[in-house]
Amino acid sequence: MTSFQIRVPATSANLGPGFDSIGIALSKYVTMDCQPADEWYFAVPEKDQPYIPSGEENLVHKTALYTANLYHYESVPPHHVEMTNDVPIARGLGSSSTAVVGGIELANHILDLQLTRFEKLKIACDIEGHPDNVGPAIYGGIMISSYDGNHLDFVRFSKGLEDLTWLAVVPDFHLETEKARELLPTEMSYKQAVHASGTANVLVAALAEQNWALAGKMMSRDQWHQPYRKNLISGFDHVQQTVLGEGALGMYISGAGPTMVALYDQITPEQLKQLSTSLSDYQIAALTVNTNGAETISSRLQAN
Fold this sequence. Notes:
Blueprint: E1 2-13, E2 22-36, E3 41-43, H1 59-70, E4 79-85, H2 95-110, H3 117-128, H4 134-139, E5 142-147, E6 152-157, E7 165-170, H5 177-182, H6 190-208, H7 212-219, H8 226-229, H9 236-245, E8 250-253, E9 260-264, H10 269-278, E10 283-287, E11 295-301
């Protein structure tokens, strides 16, 4: 009996002004231990069972089936999938993208589709609508992407990221992306749009040049979505003041929120201890960049 393991990293989208186009892979993971079975079953951690179906309605399976259909397979042979989920649901750390990317990886492995990473990304974009989360989940590192439904282009950054800390400050409540999008304006003045675009351009240039102080400054100056979405996050201003007071270069809302991420070029154990005390109402996680993206960790032959 052939079994295998797939691991998909969490992601953080936007990085402030890079709305729907910039994302980063981080060191939290969804791990799926898979082996053939008589029917599909997803063993989900108890805390996630209210939100993640155990049968064929699971997004991982639905994505695997979608991928299989693209390549003229009517179904995917059933597997028992043991899910270990370190990525909180609906908190702005790419939980749905881990399922989409995991499903593509699942179909690719079981059916031996031999998809390239670009082919996987195109499938994921067709499902998600934009590449900000699925791009880094597949490739790792920081991805700057553009997708209009037909044309998909991207640039990946990975150099100089290994020493940075991305401090995730996770509130104890869910926030659905659709609700967060409802707050966004339908129109913006030409002058304001030019300014918002310029801020995003400087962010990308700072990331490319590894000018982390400037990147952090731009993360906090977004005009596309953060001024509106922060109103859904009670305590946002307190968190921002606290992390900046403890040496953060900048802070942004991760995806649609409610998780907030602060960038540090260096962070000490003393700073982490103080942050944990000052932000005791939140889950604090000092994360690093994942530069590998989704991968099949192991494949082995087991006796029946």
